[in-house]
Write a structure and sequence with these properties.
alpha/beta; Rossmann fold; seven-stranded mixed sheet; globular
Length: 225
Amino acid sequence: MKNLLHRVFQVLDRFNAAHPWDHNTHYHPWILRRLPGRCDRALDVGSGSGELARLLATRAKAVHGIDSDPDIVSRARELTAQAAPVTFTVADAPAGIPPGPYDVITCVATVHHLPFTDALTHFREHLAPGGTLVVVGLSRETTLGDHLLSCASIPLNAAMGWIKNKGRRAPRPDSMTARTRAAEMSFSDIVREARQVLPGVRLRRRLFWRYTFVWRDGSGERGPR
């Protein structure tokens, strides 16, 4: 049985390598639905090659993306039209966040690289009154529920790769070139610490090894999750 499972996972790994898709960009439409139709300033923390920052520019008058990787920041600048109201800076979050306030702050698959409580505290301090913080994060699997959701994601992951690439082999997207590491905090630890910093916040486990939350300054979470 162990050898059979090993072979199955090898086949899945080869299939996923041939049909890659970005779990983070998958959540970008969900993020946009949680944001105001128009705003003045937006910040994307861990902006990578800039996909989300460029989407935020359809809502905000000015967007700033920060990332600690100089190469990926350079790539983001190359991919962004000069006329777009988006700037990218090499900076280490949370201390390197440019002065706010921001009406919108997004952070996708980045906060597990940072000191969690300190990062959320900085995000809150940089939000404008009534501003919106959206986080898509990763957690360490510790509970039966975590493992069941992970198992459910495995076949769906392969199916999504096939659908998004229309059944054809494809190169890895630019958005998947950033360095990453495994999450260290469990979901329950993340919930506990997030609630200490962001009153009223509610977090939700998601498919494809992610969790999400939305928090609005001064009111906790409102609206759809």
